[in-house]
Amino acid sequence: MASDQSSMTDSFEGMATAWIESSTAVSKNMAQMYSNIAAANRELWSQTMAPADSPSRESGDDSIAYSKSSWTTVQSVDTVAELEVGDEVVFRKELTDSDVHAFANISGDTNRLHLDDEFASDTRFGRRIVHGTLASGLISSALARLPGMIVYLSQDLDFERPVDIGTTVEATVRVAETLDGDRYRLDTTVQTEDGTTVIDGEAIVLIDTPPAPETDADADADADADADASTTE
User: Fold this and answer.
1) 148 phi and psi angles, rounded to 5 deg
2) 134: how many CB neighbours lie within 10 A of its CB?
3) What pTM value is reported for the model?
């Protein structure tokens, strides 16, 4: 009888050991699977979610998710350490009719001045024009391309002239003053290609260091840590 109980104990211990080893293997396989899925998702994003004409970030700046070939950016510096009074970023883009309709849909600003030709023809402008906040939004686009990660704190704007649909405009942000606490005061303008200023203003921004991008090695390490944690629970 004691021999039978010993045999049963050995059998149960063997089953338990096999189950633990199997669970560990499964956990590691699952972790590797999730790691592979994450890598595949990152690749899918780069190929499908980002525009086809923009496979990489601008100037290696990790704070910019993607760019498009129809956009133009000129930067005077590449790092926060180099940033000083007078440095600037210029961002250039055409404001198309599709942009106007997309902005109206996203923002809810469906003012007929921007969308209805017949209505707009009887206004002081005599035609449809770009939303002022759509045009001024290019200032944010330029700010985002300053080195570091930009946090918008304030913005003053003067809308000096209307922007016609189909006009290529360029937003310029220029460092006017360095403030305490990693803050900067910038002159901000939006101009047409002939140099006519349509929007003028001033912004205060905070510049932080961008988070370090996750590498495949980081993802694998996280997956291994999750697998180890699951085996100890």
Assistant:
1) 90, -175
2) 19
3) 0.68
